[in-house]
């Protein structure tokens, strides 16, 4: 008896073409879920376009104009604001104990341009200048937060602090803090969490 094998495998149908309306839906869905810089949105749209164009055997480069238009519309609508994003991200980084040097690098990695980063840090400094006398500056507060989070210096278990002093100083240096500040924090006393740090 001869049996005939019937293939149940269907040809994969290509996805619909890239359109302005589809890109806008992708952008809106992404921005509803995440805060983003203009460059982050552009990267997401580019990845989605590349995937769709691959399924259609098309050149994704032909859609660059549509991607630019979609990002520009999101900016005009206020859905994307690099200065606002940078300020919010910087506050979050500072709460986690990120140094100025590392904060600059991380903001740049998110596609924030150097001018916006400089302006954001300048605004942060201006805000710190308005703090009460005797309050530690932003970099010092970040250094303390970093030491607390990593259990360095005064946050180590009793009896282990001095033996780990050089290691802790090296960790602070790798995190981007100056030697003088690292030495002050590692040699200082443990402090209570400051819940106001980073709040608007």
Automatic annotation (TrEMBL):
The RecX second three-helical domain, residue ranges: 81-121
Pfam families: RecX_HTH2
InterPro entries per the UniProt record, alphabetical: RecX_HTH_2nd, WH-like_DNA-bd_sf
Compartments (UniProt record): Cytoplasm
Keywords noted in UniProt: Cytoplasm
UniProt entry tagged with the keyword Cytoplasm: yes
Record bears the keyword Cytoplasm: yes
Annotated stretches, region: Disordered: 147-167
GO cellular component assignments: cytoplasm
Gene3D superfamilies: Winged helix-like DNA-binding domain superfamily/Winged helix DNA-binding domain
Similarity comment: Belongs to the RecX family.
Protein name: Regulatory protein RecX
């Amino acid at each position: 008896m001869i049996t005939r094998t019937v293939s149940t495998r269907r040809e994969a149908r290509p996805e619909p073409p890239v359109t302005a309306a589809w890109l806008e839906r992708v952008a809106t869905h992404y921005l509803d879920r995440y805060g983003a810089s203009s460059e982050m949105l552009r990267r997401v749209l580019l990845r989605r376009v590349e995937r769709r164009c691959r399924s259609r055997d098309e050149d994704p480069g032909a859609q660059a104009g549509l991607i630019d238009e979609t990002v520009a519309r999101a900016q005009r609508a206020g859905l994307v604001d690099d200065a606002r994003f940078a300020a919010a991200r910087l506050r979050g980084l500072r709460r986690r104990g990120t140094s100025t040097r590392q904060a600059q690098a991380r903001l740049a990695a998110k596609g924030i341009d150097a001018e916006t980063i400089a302006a954001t840090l300048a605004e942060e400094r201006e805000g710190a200048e308005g703090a009460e006398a005797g309050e530690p500056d932003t970099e010092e507060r970040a250094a303390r937060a970093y030491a607390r989070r990593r259990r360095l210096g005064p946050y180590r278990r009793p009896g282990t602090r001095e033996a780990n002093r050089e290691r802790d100083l090296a960790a602070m240096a790798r995190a981007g803090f100056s030697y003088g500040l690292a030495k002050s924090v590692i040699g200082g006393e443990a402090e209570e969490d400051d819940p106001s740090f980073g709040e608007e």
